[in-house]
Amino acid sequence: xxxxxxxxxxxxxxxxxxxxxxxxxxxxxxxxxxxxxxxxxxxxxxxxxxxxxxxxxxxxxxxxxxxxxxxxxxxxxxxxxxxxxxxxxxxxxxxxxxxxxxxxxxxxxxxxxxxxxxxxxxxxxxxxxxxxxxxxxxxxxxxxxxxxxxxxxxxxxxxxxxxxxxxxxxxxxxxxxxxxxxxxxxxxxxxxxxxxxxxxxxxxxxxxxxxxxxxxxxxxxxxxxxxxxxxxxxxxxxxxxxxxxxxxxxxxxxxxxxxxxxxxxxxxxxxxxxxxxxxxxxxxxxxxxxxxxxxxxxxxxxxxxxxxxxxxxxxxxxxxxxxxxxxxxxxxxxxxxxxxxxxxxxxxxxxxxxxxxxxx
Length: 360
Ligand code: PEP
Ligand code: MN
Description:
This protein has helices at about 10-25, 50-55, 110-125, 145-160, 175-180, 195-200, 215-230, 255-265, 275, 285-290, 320-340, 355-360; strands spanning about 1-5, 25-30, 35-40, 60-65, 85-90, 90-95, 100-105, 125-130, 165, 185, 205-210, 235-240, 270, 295-300. It is an alpha/beta fold. The protein has an eight-stranded parallel β-barrel, surrounded by seven helices. A four-stranded antiparallel beta sheet has the order 2-3-1-4, covered by helices on one side. A two-stranded antiparallel sheet has the order 5-6.
């Protein structure tokens, strides 16, 4: 549930509400809405719900108390109607601009990273990606350069000015990755690693969570909920394809997830057509498709010599291909932005969307 404070409520009344919530063994989360303060009540409410709603509703300064029927609370549009904008250095994700995260699957050497970073920056990428710790299906495959790669990423940020995103695979890597990187990435294989999600929730860096290949949209939102509940509101979601019976593509890119997520949550949504398709020639059309359905941006793997890459050689674009993709993405993004306020078919109101979806 969340408590909407009256616009005239003072400090003492706000403290009174928060104190009551804490006294119940629950946690208050404040959100300054456009007009008034909203306080989410998070925790195991159980059978106390009705009684608690009445008790909180009777406190001075409280305007209304509304239940949140979804299992995801802090990440829901019900609690937080405005879009979250994640700001990192000069980049903003979710503000209506086109976010383009680009760079190699793995950081392989200083030269490989710098050449890629300079080319993607010149082509208009807004964030540099590069894997330092690599989750590989085979223990015999290249596992990443680790901390050495983190240093190259930090140097590449110095050269290009681009913020850096890289994957963190374990809770005990969170501090070191946060020391070098601007955004932490939680990979598909770790989307339900709850100790990692909690650890990422305790650092002062934005986190991008990639959808697990067997995860529902609700499970992705619950993963994000862990991070926000642990204290980190700067979460970005990434649709990177789910596993289906199809074998021509590495995964099946769930484009419907993008508008669905935008309806259910205030968090920005990125699509990753590189891991979703696993095929170089499918990356541009699916990147365009992701932006066309309203993604806040894309993540694209780029390598100076893709065929020689130490990981994911089949899906990385070369530098020229990436430049051409950037040129194609911009007009699509502009077109989608200009249509934003003109829904062709109205969907269910955000608050009722899960129920409405369940019925169809
Ligand atoms: C990656 O982006 O480097 C990666 C490993 O992706 P995913 O976790 O989506 O497989
Ligand atoms: Mn990869």
